[in-house]
Known about the structure:
Mean pLDDT: 94
CATH class of the largest domain: Alpha Beta
Number of helices: 11
CATH topology of the largest domain: Rossmann fold
Number of strands: 8
Strand content: 5-15%
Radius of gyration: 20 Å
Number of domains: 2
Helix content: 40-55%
Structural class: alpha/beta
Shape: globular
Low-confidence stretches: none
Strand order of the largest sheet: 2-1-3-4
Amino acid sequence: MSKRATKGVLLVQLGTPNAPTTPEVRRYLTEFLMDPRVMDISYLGRSLLVKGLIVPKRAPRSAATYKTIWDAKTGSPLLYYSEIQRDLLQKELGDDYHIELAMRYQNPSIESALKNLEEMMLDSIRVIPLFPQYASATTGSIIDKVMEIMRKWQYFPTLSFVSNYCDDPQMCGIYARHASKNKLEEFDHILFSYHGLPVRQLGKVDPSGQLRCPDSGCDRCKVEKNSFCYLSQCYATTRAIAEKLGLSESRYSVCFQSRLGKTPWIQPYTSDTLHQLAQKGVKKLLVFSPAFVSDCIETLDEIQVEYADEFKAAGGEQVTMVESLNDDPEWIEVLRRLALD
């Protein structure tokens, strides 16, 4: 008779389409962009924009892109690595724990994962968003969804959330080790590219509503870690990795990718930065993407294909991507610590 688990851990990633087809990508994008924490405008405005303009235009293009990164056997890279992380963490934590994996959007859903945990009558549940940096649109959305579902439960195990681990020394050490597989001295510059956010979302973390953030953040957020400022945490991650590698500030830049629409997003934009570096004569770039703990469409296509082509067209020669955390054993150790802390 196997030992009954008494503690649960819920790992949550952003999400992925069920298949690289236009209907499935349309379904994924609609669920993602209709989240009011992601597109923080009125419901009517969000519906008109998402369902009437963005999704019909983007779904066919995104489906074509997903087909280029979709593996015939393992499917979505994001789901593939997330499932490996779940299984390896289960092995590390043993029979006292039960590990579930969920995607904030699409499958496996948070609803189904929590249903499995509810039926086990656990003493505690630990929720670990697979985003090192906190943002309302990512970690905040996950916490919101978990609480929405669990408030209907008739019993409540001890519930805890990991808010961020942006400058975790061991995690940043893994990124540095992966970068060191390349000969750093051969690169003209090093780029830290993070997923972007609309600028207005930076100020919304202030309950008073008085905070107004400039497009590229304030000077303070670039040198101090704020527990609820996404931008400051991106810079904190960068500083921690750069310190591990012994990089001077002149050797690297921070930028933000994946902007959507005409509203101002956090700057500098990755695309603009690539063009500026090429114009300065930079030929070889090493690129980190530390907002993602698993390879996904943003790392495999947006950086390694789209941005690489832009850089070369502007006069650059080479873009080399630093491997993500994926199934690195040390990353599983980081997850184990987060589960036990």
